[in-house]
Amino acid sequence: MALKLTTNNFETEVYQSDIPVLVDFYADWCGPCKAMAPVVDALAGEYEGKAKVGKINTDENQDVAMEYGVMSIPTFIVFKGGKAVKKMIGMQDKRTLVAALEEAL
Questions:
Q1: If DSSP states are collapsed to H, E and C, what string results for 41-99?
Q2: With bands split at pLDDT 50, 70 and 90, how would you rate the model's confidence at 46?
Q3: For 22, which of 2, 29, 34, 84 is 20 to 30 Å away at the CA?
Q4: Pairing mode, strands 75-80 and 21-26
């Protein structure tokens, strides 16, 4: 299950993480976001201990979405060492997300 990220825990869970973090920027009303949810949750399980996989609701945490210029959802950003290293906009296939995570490991 993907980690639930918020403005309050983003600093600790993402910026201060010693392992790469894949963040899914989503909203509850977004159809493509719902379609991506099982893939995101599966990756969270597969990468447990190697990387974090989290989701942040853009409606509830607009400040974080604005900071990273998230205009379309879903948007996926891989963070490494507290910095955004890869940004992918729109639905992605699992292979693309895996490749982005592997690159950051």
A1: HHHHHHCCCCCEEEEEECCCCHHHHHHCCCCCCCEEEEEECCEEEEEEECCCCHHHHHH
A2: very high
A3: 29
A4: antiparallel
CB 72 within 8 A of CB 25: no
| pLDDT-derived band at 92, boundaries 50, 70, 90 | very high
Q: Are the C-beta atoms of 17 and 32 separated by less than 8 Å?
A: no
Token pair, residue 38, equals: 């099982």
- Please answer whether residues 61 and 73 qualify as being in contact, where contact means their C-beta atoms are separated by less than 8 angstroms: no
Contact 24, 74 (CB under 8 A): yes
Sign of CA pseudo-dihedral 86, 91, 95, 101: positive
Known catalytic residues are 30, 33
